[in-house]
Amino acid sequence: MHSEYLVRMANDIGHFFAAEPDQNEATQHILAHIKRFWDPRMRAQIIAHYRAGGEGLNGIVRSAVEALAQEAAAQGK
Fold it and tell me: Quick one: which of 26, 30, 42, 69 could link to 64 by a disulfide (CB 3.0–4.6 Å)?
């Protein structure tokens, strides 16, 4: 799957949760959604995209993917 498609999907998820008044909570909702519904290959690819600069990832989405990347790093991935 192309990174551009994953970025668009992640940003769409972010738009859904952007109305959440607490941005930290919105970030956690995005992170939970990605962990729950994205296949491991998709998660690995969005993490790789983030680590390469994360072009196109919007504010709270970038924060959620950063948290995902930190979790992966803690697990040695």
Answer: 30
Output the DSSP codes for 28-59: HHHHHHHHHHS-HHHHHHHHHHHHTT-TT--H
Residue 60 in contact with residue 17, Cβ under 8 Å?
yes
**Ramachandran angles phi, psi of 74, nearest 5°:** -65, -25
Give the number of residues written for the chain.
77
Cα-to-chain-centroid distance, residue 53: 13
Cβ(46)–Cβ(6) below 8 Å: yes
Tens of pLDDT along 7-39? 999 999 999 999 999 999 999 999 999 999 999
CA 8 – CA 73 distance, rounded (Å): 24
Q: What is the CA angle 7-10-16, rounded to 5?
A: 140
